[in-house]
C-alpha cells in the first residue's frame, strides 16, 4: 500500500468517526464546571480526612505525654523523700515536682485548645511503684532508685520529643529540631 493511500484511508476513517460522534451523542457530555465541582468536593473531603487524622495523631502524642507526666508525679515525691539528706538528688529536687505539675497543666491546655474547647478526660495510669523502696538504704534499694531515675529521664525525653513533634506540626515555622 502506498503512503498516500494510507493517509487518505486514515483521513476518511477519522472523518467517519467524527461524524458518528457528532450525530449519535451516545456518551452524555458532562459540563466541565461540574467535573471541577466534583473534583474539588472530593479534594475537600480528602483534605478534611487528612486534617482529622493529623489532629488525632497530635492529640494522641499529647495524651501519651500527659499520662507519662502524671505517672511520674508520685514517684518524684517519693524520690525527694529518699534522697532528702543526700547529695545524689541535688538542690533542684524541689523544682522537679513543680515543673512536672506545670508541664501537666500546659499539656492539658494544649489538648483543650487542639480539641476546640472540649478536653478529653482519659483514664490516668495508676502505676504501682511497689518496687520503689523509700525505707531501705541498702545497695539494692539504691539500684532500684537509680533505675527509677533512669526511667524518669527516658520518659521525659519522650515527652520532649512528642511535644516537639506536635509543635512542629501545629505552629508554622517552628520545625527547628
TrEMBL record:
<protein>
    <submittedName>
        <fullName>Growth hormone 2</fullName>
    </submittedName>
</protein>
<dbReference type="GO" id="GO:0005179">
    <property type="term" value="F:hormone activity"/>
</dbReference>
<dbReference type="GO" id="GO:0046872">
    <property type="term" value="F:metal ion binding"/>
</dbReference>
<feature type="signal peptide">
    <location>
        <begin position="1"/>
        <end position="26"/>
    </location>
</feature>
<keyword id="KW-0732">Signal</keyword>
<comment type="similarity">
    <text>Belongs to the somatotropin/prolactin family.</text>
</comment>
<keyword id="KW-0372">Hormone</keyword>
<dbReference type="GO" id="GO:0005576">
    <property type="term" value="C:extracellular region"/>
</dbReference>
<dbReference type="InterPro" id="IPR018116">
    <property type="entry name" value="Somatotropin_CS"/>
</dbReference>
<dbReference type="Pfam" id="PF00103">
    <property type="entry name" value="Hormone_1"/>
</dbReference>
<feature type="binding site">
    <location>
        <position position="160"/>
    </location>
    <ligand>
        <name>Zn(2+)</name>
    </ligand>
</feature>
<keyword id="KW-0479">Metal-binding</keyword>
<dbReference type="InterPro" id="IPR001400">
    <property type="entry name" value="Somatotropin/Prolactin"/>
</dbReference>
<keyword id="KW-0964">Secreted</keyword>
<dbReference type="InterPro" id="IPR009079">
    <property type="entry name" value="4_helix_cytokine-like_core"/>
</dbReference>
<keyword id="KW-0862">Zinc</keyword>
Amino acid at each position: 500500500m502506498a503512503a498516500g493511500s494510507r493517509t487518505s484511508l486514515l483521513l476518511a476513517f477519522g472523518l467517519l468517526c467524527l461524524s458518528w460522534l457528532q450525530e449519535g451523542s451516545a456518551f452524555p457530555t458532562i459540563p466541565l464546571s461540574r467535573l471541577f465541582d466534583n473534583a474539588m468536593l472530593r479534594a475537600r473531603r480528602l483534605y478534611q480526612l487528612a486534617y482529622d487524622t493529623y489532629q488525632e495523631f497530635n492529640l494522641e502524642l499529647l495524651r501519651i505525654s500527659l499520662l507519662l507526666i502524671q505517672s511520674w508525679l508520685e514517684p518524684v515525691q517519693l524520690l525527694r523523700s529518699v534522697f532528702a539528706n543526700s547529695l545524689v538528688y541535688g538542690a533542684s529536687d524541689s523544682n522537679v515536682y513543680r515543673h512536672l505539675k506545670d508541664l501537666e497543666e500546659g499539656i492539658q491546655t494544649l489538648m483543650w485548645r487542639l480539641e476546640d474547647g472540649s478536653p478529653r478526660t482519659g483514664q490516668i495510669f495508676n502505676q504501682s511503684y511497689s518496687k520503689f523502696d523509700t525505707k531501705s538504704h541498702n545497695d539494692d534499694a539504691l539500684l532500684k532508685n537509680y533505675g527509677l531515675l533512669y526511667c524518669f529521664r527516658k520518659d521525659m525525653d519522650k515527652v520532649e520529643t512528642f511535644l516537639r513533634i506536635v509543635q512542629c506540626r501545629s505552629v508554622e515555622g517552628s520545625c527547628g529540631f
